[in-house]
Amino acid sequence: MLNLPENKKIVLFDGVCNLCDNAVQFIIKHDKKDVFRFASLQSEIGQEIVKHIGIDISKIDSIILYEPGVAYYYKSEAALNIAKYLGGTLTVLSVFRVIPVGFANVVYDYIAKNRYRWYGKKESCMIPTPELKSKFI
């Protein structure tokens, strides 16, 4: 059984991707209601979660939003759901829900496929600062 924080949504991300790292930093900065916790897909807990929910990450190159006991989302649906929970002006992004998921995922996949070339890649996953350590599982 997974030991996850209660009442938190888990964001699984590529821990060596600079774009993903910047996205995590952005989410943390705008997570005023303390909704999210984070784990890299490369971490032991990240691997346990994807196995638990039945996602083959060798076939899905995506950020994953996992709401324990409720649902999981990936690609554009994950991004839009994260924006929804951040609130404020970011809820404006919900207008993109009118775009068919298939088309939105084509755009998402194009960015995901090129992210290392455009934004770079780290040698290893980020180590959170002591101030941010509580945000990571």
Automatic annotation (TrEMBL):
Q: Which residues form a coiled coil?
A: none
Q: Which Pfam families match?
A: DCC1-like
Look up and give the organism this protein is from. Flavobacterium muglaense
Q: Which GO terms describe its molecular function?
A: protein-disulfide reductase activity
Q: Can you name this protein? A: DUF393 domain-containing protein
